[in-house]
Design brief:
alpha/beta, Rossmann fold
Length: 346
């Protein structure tokens, strides 16, 4: 990336003119953070800058940190470089970061989705010369149904299980996907939550995000104490002894990878609901067009395949090798790693 406004260093994306990094993966002096997932907000930085909405979750995860916040749309000059945060629509508080210096504008997307979910701040495209885009689902096979349709399918599955006297166990990442589901699902019965989910619920409720009541699972919680319940837990909990208390139960997962039947079979799930906090193919391509960028760098997913496609469309496009990935949808490797993804846990 040479003398570009943003360059790649062993610690992560760096702005030489401003002296700051964006979502660095190794400790640095000044880190601008797009959102609170662990592959983007890492410990050890001297000072953090993020949105007011993202900071509480980041502090919960990282403990005491020195941090400053910058509201969406506000600008800050750092050594003559102007930075601002703009909604990414990924999870509550998530941002794209706009960087401007001497008339050149770059935008780092972080993670994003273009469909409004009713909870996270809605994605807002930002015009720029160069756009660093994620492409977790950067293949044409990935197309998400509108959220109301998928939520209706989950609700019907929950209702059928309850009618059969079974608990519904739904795997969803503890920050973002879980709260999105809680906010969107109809009140068909009690919603029980794993401790990791409920801790995040409490943080977001304290910030004013509207979440219906949920019940934290305790050692005393059993299927018979909450018949017909929906239990939302991190995917890793579904295969653990923690889940056995809810038998008889049906298990499912809400993830973009559920669009691939092979992934669902590999996890031994009866049901899978394709619902992602990352943009699908149409969302990615529409977002890039909306930026009016001529240069696009692809990271975090099917980078080589996606960059090739963009180059064929006339963009100055290339993959950008980063250490993002390993959280939520991005934690699952693609069904066919040879198809062009870096996939897999980091």
């Amino acid at each position: 990336m040479g003398q570009d406004l943003l360059t790649l260093t062993p610690s992560g994306l760096f702005c030489p003119a401003g002296g700051f990094h964006i979502d660095p993966w190794r400790p640095v002096d000044r880190a601008l953070i797009t959102h609170g997932h662990s592959d983007h907000a890492r410990p050890g930085h001297t000072a953090y800058l993020t949105t007011p909405q993202a900071l509480p979750v980041i502090r919960h995860r990282l403990g005491p940190i020195t941090a400053q916040t910058l509201p969406f749309g506000a600008t800050l000059s750092i050594q003559g470089v102007t930075v601002s945060f703009h909604p990414a629509g990924h999870v509550p508080g998530s941002a794209q970061i706009r960087v401007e210096h001497r008339g050149e504008v770059w935008v780092v997307s972080g993670d994003y989705k273009t469909e409004a979910d009713g909870l996270a701040e809605r994605f807002a495209p930002v015009r720029c010369h160069a756009f660093i885009t994620e492409c977790t689902f950067g293949l044409p096979v990935f197309h998400w149904a509108p959220q109301p349709e998928t939520v209706a399918e989950i609700a019907a599955w929950w209702a059928a299980n309850a009618a059969a006297g079974k608990t519904s166990l739904l795997g969803a990442y503890s920050f973002g996907k879980a709260q999105r589901l809680i906010a969107a699902l109809p009140a068909l019965g009690p919603i029980l939550t794993h401790g990791a989910v409920e801790e995040t619920n409490a943080i977001l409720r304290a910030q004013g995000y509207a979440l219906p009541p949920t019940i934290r699972v305790t050692p005393e919680t059993r299927a018979k104490t909450h018949p017909g319940a929906l239990v939302i837990a991190p995917p890793s909990a579904l295969a653990s002894p923690w889940a056995r208390r809810f038998e008889p139960a049906e298990q499912a997962m809400a993830s973009g990878w559920m669009a691939l039947r092979g992934i669902r079979r590999r996890r031994g799930l009866g049901m899978g609901f394709p619902l992602s906090d990352h943009a699908d193919w149409d969302g990615l391509t529409a977002a890039i067009r909306a930026t009016a960028a001529t240069r696009v760098l692809a990271t975090h997913g099917y980078t080589h395949a996606f960059a090739r496609y963009l180059a064929e469309q006339g963009y100055d496009a290339a993959p950008l090798e980063t250490e993002f990935g390993g959280v939520g949808d991005a934690a699952d490797p693609p069904e066919d790693p040879a198809s062009g993804a870096e996939g897999g846990p980091v």
